[in-house]
Specification:
This protein is of the alpha+beta class and 205 residues long. It is 30% helix and 38% strand. A 10-stranded antiparallel β-sheet has the order 4-3-2-1-10-9-8-7-6-5. Strand 3 and strand 4 form a beta hairpin. The longest helix is centred in the N-terminal third of the chain and has 38 residues. The protein is globular and about 45 Å long. It starts with a helix and ends with a strand.
């Protein structure tokens, strides 16, 4: 009887300690889950470039001044003689966008402007290259261009490569995402040096 009584008491004591052990195990499990959660890989952030930006003509470079300043860079003798024709060509290849729209998509980023929208929009990886993108020019012709892209922090770059040269668009977002700055560099064998200018855009509200 005594042995049986002692067993019963021990069993009762064990049953009294069980809740404490359960709480300890539960706390350890929560801590383990927290640690494992901290080790979980972070989800890739979506590009900050999204929405529509409208050109602020008062904030960027005056395009007529840009054209006039770069006329002397034209190598062609005929171009120098017929400045009106040369000026028209520079205007054509450097028409400023009235607006720019960015939209994240499964492929990366889709970019549209008033000069190439809808079926002509440019869809690219955030960093990579697109071969044979087709763009309609101001005179109605279709031009085939290769486009390289690079996304880094608050900048997104388009590098257009055509037969007669390259154009690089570097889009930079302000910290609050309200202002978009576009820095353009045009390099061509028909020019004695690069043509550069800056345009500024504001987020549409």
């Amino acid at each position: 009887m005594c042995v049986h009584t002692r067993r019963t008491a021990m069993q009762r004591a064990g049953s009294r300690r069980a809740p404490g052990r359960s709480r300890a195990i539960g706390a350890a499990g929560v801590a383990l889950l927290a640690v494992l959660g901290s080790w979980a890989p972070a989800r890739a952030q979506e590009p900050a470039f999204r929405g529509t930006f409208i050109r602020d003509t008062a904030a960027g470079d005056d395009m007529e001044q840009v054209i006039n300043q770069n006329l002397p860079k034209i190598k062609s003798v005929l171009g120098k003689l017929f400045k009106g024709t040369a000026r028209a060509r520079l205007r054509e290849v450097n028409r400023p966008y009235s607006w720019i729209h960015f939209a994240p998509c499964p492929e990366g980023i889709a970019t549209e402007t008033d000069l190439w929208a809808g079926e002509w929009k440019l869809t690219t990886p955030t960093t990579g290259e697109v071969k044979g993108w087709k763009r309609r020019t101001g005179d109605g012709k279709v031009e085939t261009i290769d486009v390289a892209t690079e996304l880094a922090a608050n900048t997104f770059t388009h590098r257009f490569k055509a037969e007669d040269g390259t154009r690089t668009n570097v889009y930079t977002l302000s910290p609050d995402g309200r202002t978009l700055t576009l820095d353009v560099t045009v390099v061509s064998g028909k020019l004695t040096g690069p043509m550069t200018y800056r345009l500024v855009y504001r987020a549409r509200t």
